[in-house]
């Protein structure tokens, strides 16, 4: 997915109302009136939100007479997931290397096992 497309998608999803619309559309296509029901905003404001989602490629509305169904374009999320996964994998690899380094450092701090612990008095007697 080109960076400018990712920017549009992430920008569109930055708004909580649009994220909620996307979540509702994940259950199935809906009309604009149905999408507008839970919001305390004008239908014109709902159309503005949908326009941002459409321009980002997150939703589509087929041409034709009203009412038109709003459809969630899931391919966009597959592309976002691939982009996110690439960086998640990199981060996990770095954390794994850090874990290994910390474990190696911890191993070096551990005194060798002698089988018997000695008290400071016993250590002094052996030195005399």
Oligomer: single chain
Q: Strand tally, please? A: 3
Q: Cα distance, first to last residue?
A: 75 Å
Count of alpha/pi helices: 6
Order of helices and strands: HHEHHEEHH
- Fraction in beta strands: 5-15%
Largest sheet: 3 strands, antiparallel
Estimate percent helicity.
55-70%
Q: Give the C-alpha Rg.
A: 29 Å
Mean pLDDT across residues: 86
The unreliable regions are none
What is the 3D form?
elongated
Structure classification: mainly alpha
Strand arrangement in the largest pleated sheet: 1-3-2
Structure description:
There is one protein chain. With 128 residues, the chain is mainly α. The protein is 65% helix and 6% strand. The chain contains six helices and three strands. The chain has a three-stranded antiparallel beta sheet. Helix 1 runs antiparallel to helix 4. The model has no long low-confidence stretch (mean pLDDT 86).
Could you provide a short overview of the structure?
The chain has 128 residues and is mainly alpha-helical. It has 6 helices and 3 strands; from the N terminus they run H-H-E-H-H-E-E-H-H.
Structure characteristics:
mainly alpha, 128 residues, 6 helices
Topology, element by element:
Blueprint: H1 3-13, H2 16-25, E1 30-31, H3 32-36, H4 43-55, E2 59-60, E3 69-72, H5 74-109, H6 120-127
